[in-house]
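Tutorial, part two.
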Amino acid sequence: MRDYQREGLGWMLFLQHFGFGGCLADDMGLGKTVQVLALLEKLRTAPGRGARRPSLVVVPRTLIFNWKQEAARFAPRLKVLEHTGPDRGRSPGDLAGAHLVLTTYGTLRRDIPWLKDLRFEMAILDEAQAIKNPHTASAKAARLLQADHRLALSGTPIENHLGELWSLFEFLNPGMLGASSAFRAWVSGSGDGDEGDRETLRRAIAPFILRRTKEQVARELPPRREQTIYCEMSGRQQSLYDELAAYYRNSLAGRIETRGLERSKIQVLEALLRLRQAACHPGLVDRARRNVPSGKIEVLLPAWRNSVRKDTSRWSSPSSPPCWPWCASSSTSEASVTPISMGEPANGKRKCVSFRKTRPAPCF
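Running the prediction step on this input gives:
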């Protein structure tokens, strides 16, 4: 582990010792998962604690594989149980013997009727901004969990306004920020508070949020590079996109005319979502069209391969420093180009996509 990761581990142990929950809000790529795994391994090997209850980690579905892979790599002695899918256990006995139980927010919502009766060693929420709205089923389910210690991981604990802090801290330290209505009234009544109010809030929550940026703790990492690549849809993809656009144009026009725009907002958002999916790949809209060529994929894959080839050759260069901060042997995380937004080229047709080149996972 790096020095800043050891500091993060010490901070989490400090909160645990005094019975507080906290939010680890480091920048993406600084190893929040590794720090949590180190904490769980520390708890597993702590002397004189007897039989230990399992710890529950709730993550988005797309991160299940990453957690399992990181656990196998950095904490191989942890017994990891994936509690997802139709074949998952349906009773407390099915979780017995595991040190770490991985589940998703969707599974948590469905299984909370019996999960709420269990007591976990730790309850950990990854990408905790998923509970920023206290009225969602995910937020309500998370607050029902029973655990000796609570932890949240999020690179963006506040996405829109200060009111989102209440839901996060109601999970971490129930009652710390008072009643939801009072906190919401303070936020809405003073425009997220005046300078003095914000400073008071900052000082109150500072001990329970740890945030470090790459510039602060990993200055050896080169700056992020972004590149915008314009690409044309394939012929069949363009035809399907135009067909879908015409369908939604006609259906929305009739609905708005009869019911008004105010009562048609959900349908408008659905149309935009489907069109964005079709622009990425028709298979996202209709699984039967998975074999339809995608102009975006045809541009993305060669760019990704070229990026990996260049970065790998640089890592293997004799002039590379002896402690290069990235793992040249890493497989799926060596380098990637991920879509971040759809755009509009000069001709006004929706045929472009923006890509972000992200750095590989750091070595620890």
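The mean pLDDT is 80. In part three we will examine how such features are distributed along the chain.
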